[in-house]
Amino acid sequence: TGVGMSVRVCFQKKHSVINLWKRSLSTPALRDPVIGIIVGSSREESINAKLGTYAGKLMNEMGLNVNHISLDGLPLYSQDIEAKGFPSEAAHLKKQMEACDG
């Protein structure tokens, strides 16, 4: 819980900054901001995955929209693969990241 508490304190300190950011974007023409969370480990018991989930939960509680972006199935970079065409998994990742504001 020490790490979890540190994450909570960090987000609480940033809470006022996030609220200011949301207010600056909250005109009728704009949507609520979306925060993307990417975790580099696909292991089920990954500490990083647990922290990413916990951080997402805290951000949701602050009223932010969160998008957990998975790297599963993403091929390693290769010019040979790219020369044959942009991999669909990479195109999907790009779309997910472009949909996020931070």
Keyphrases for this structure?
mainly alpha, two-stranded parallel sheet, 54% helix, flat, disordered N terminus
> Separation of termini?
26 Å
Mean pLDDT: 78
Q: Note poorly predicted spans.
A: 1-7
The best one-word shape is: flat
Q: What radius of gyration results from the CA coordinates? A: 17 Å
User: How many strand elements?
Assistant: 2
Number of helical segments with 4 or more residues: 4
Q: How does the major sheet shape up?
A: 2 strands, parallel
Structural class, by secondary structure, is mainly alpha
How much of the sequence lies in strands comes to: 5-15%
The strand order across the widest sheet is: 1-2
Specify the helix fraction band. Answer: 40-55%
Account of the 3D structure:
With 102 residues, the chain is mainly alpha-helical. The chain is 54% helix and 10% strand. The protein contains 4 helices and 2 strands; from the N terminus they run H-E-H-E-H-H. The chain has helices spanning 2-25, 47-61, 79-83, 88-98; strands at 34-38, 65-69. It has a two-stranded parallel ribbon. Helix 2 (47-61) links the parallel strand 1 and strand 2 (65-69). The longest helix has 24 residues, at 2-25. It is flat and about 45 Å long. The two termini are 26 Å apart.
Question: What is the element layout, followed by pairings?
Answer:
Blueprint: H1 2-25, E1 34-38, H2 47-61, E2 65-69, H3 79-83, H4 88-98
Parallel strand pairs: 1-2
Helix pairs in contact: 1-2
